[in-house]
Amino acid sequence: MERTFVMIKPDGVARGLIGRIVNRFEEKGFVIAQAQLLYLSAEQAGVHYAHLKSKPFFGELVDYITSGPVFAMILEGHQAVQNARTLIGFTNPIEAQAGTIRGDYALIVDSNVIHGSDSVENAEIEIKRFFG
Asked: Taking the CB of the first residue and of the last residue of the chain, which one, N or C, has fewer CB atoms within 10 A?
């Protein structure tokens, strides 16, 4: 059974989408192994987005992800990483298909509701980062 990390971002939490999003993962067949509501520090956000540190929008990204609580989850299921990413949709909501989480709930790339690990290796790193 593969595991992945998914995080509902501050805009998704603020809009009351946790239940709807969790339900979509459960309907797909995922098992929620662990979940928690938490606030990220600037240091945690900097580590999480370290691969984007050289980008001009890095500071805004850190400000955004630390602007409110996030809902972090460990999901388990068959090919969990790829299945979750397919359900989440493209990073840019304009490109995300209807029926995906971003296609249905996000309007702009700067606040696109949700994060999902992009590989099994990164999923394990992110799970350790947020769940110990």
From this structure: C
